[in-house]
Here is the input.
Amino acid sequence: MSAFALDRQTRPFAQINVTPLVDVMLVLLIIFMIATPLLTHKLTLNLGGACRVNCPQADEPISLSIKQTGEIYWNGVALNRAQLEQNLALAARQAEPPRLTLRPEARTRYALVADTLATVKNAGLDRIAIDPAPR
Here is the structure.
């Protein structure tokens, strides 16, 4: 019998080659490790501390409503953008700035709400609560 003769009794074995599978999984793991930090957004919120003794009385929060049409209401009174900025500046100058509750109407454009939030933040008010209207 020669050295190159085929052994007729050997059978092919059926095993999966896992090397390509491991390679693909490692590449996907690296992609997710790189992409995950890019997808996270940071939003800083001032939740305030708990006051236990001699706490000052909290002022009534400001209710700022935004309608679908772009109308803005300050505690139920209609305002334009200039009046809003003026009221926000006055509120921010107080010794203890009040809490502002933003109530956008359902289906209000996101750009309008984001613009109003930016105006409030630029005025110096950082205690903001968002109370969405029921649908």
Q: What stands out?
A: The longest strand covers residues 62-66. Strands lie at 62-66, 72-74, 77-79, 100-104, 128-130. The chain has a mean pLDDT of 82. Helices lie at 19-39, 81-92, 110-123.
